[in-house]
Design goal:
With about 210 residues, the chain is an all-alpha fold. The chain is built from ten helices and no strands.
Length: about 210
């Protein structure tokens, strides 16, 4: 007689990993308790005892995605340049998405909604972005409404990362598009004085890079 299966941490991890991959590659309706359990070489009872059922398992996948993204964007150091800090947050977001493509798809691929204009919790990945935007507004670097600015930045980021993860952009194109699009989005929200200053620096840089006879 074989030993009974135990629903330990290893089983839990396998179930979460399998559910993550299945949610990232197919519709949520196709992710059944039986299918996840079979993929994880576990019993269907394990899903219920460890997560309370399918909804609890999906919730665990999403919670891990949210926590991971929040941890990475929260680790961005604050500098004296609030505009540079916003760009650094965008870089951290992209880096997390590229490093956790399945979790990114689960978080932003239609399985769960994401509303930057909604109520923001203490561990919401949008919070560091809103904090940086509030600082830039207070310093008269940006002008506008904070949640609207956050939504425009996120929409740009999400589009870029989604295209990159889908393989629609090669590495060089993705890198160039990221810098240009995020830079343009941030400049579009700057105050007139800051915008003029940024353009002067860009024009001076372009002039110095021109070949000389």
């Amino acid at each position: 007689m074989g030993r009974p299966r135990t629903n330990d941490q290893a089983v839990k991890e396998r179930l979460v990993l399998c559910a993550t991959e299945m949610l990232a590659t197919g519709p949520q309706e196709s992710v059944t308790v039986r299918a996840v359990a079979a993929a994880a070489e576990a019993s269907t009872a394990a899903v219920y005892s460890l997560f309370g059922g399918k909804d609890g398992l999906i919730g665990e996948v999403r919670d891990r995605a949210v926590a991971g993204l929040f941890q990475d964007v929260s680790a961005v150091q604050t500098s004296a340049d609030s505009l540079a800090d916003l760009y650094a947050l965008a870089v951290a977001y992209r880096r997390w998405g590229r490093g956790h493509s399945h979790l990114y798809t689960v978080l932003f691929g239609g399985v769960q909604s994401f509303d930057p204009s909604g109520e923001v919790g203490t561990s919401d990945p949008i919070r560091p972005l809103l904090t940086a935007i509030d600082r830039a507004l207070a310093e008269s670097v940006l002008v506008g409404e904070a949640t609207t600015i956050a939504l425009s930045i996120w929409a740009t980021l999400h589009g870029l990362v989604t295209l990159e993860l889908a393989g629609a952009l090669d590495a060089a194109t993705a890198e160039a598009a990221f810098g240009a699009a995020i830079g343009a989005t941030l400049r579009g929200w700057t105050t007139p004085a800051v915008f003029r200053s940024l353009r002067q620096v860009e024009l001076a840089t372009d002039h110095r890079s021109e070949p000389r006879c």
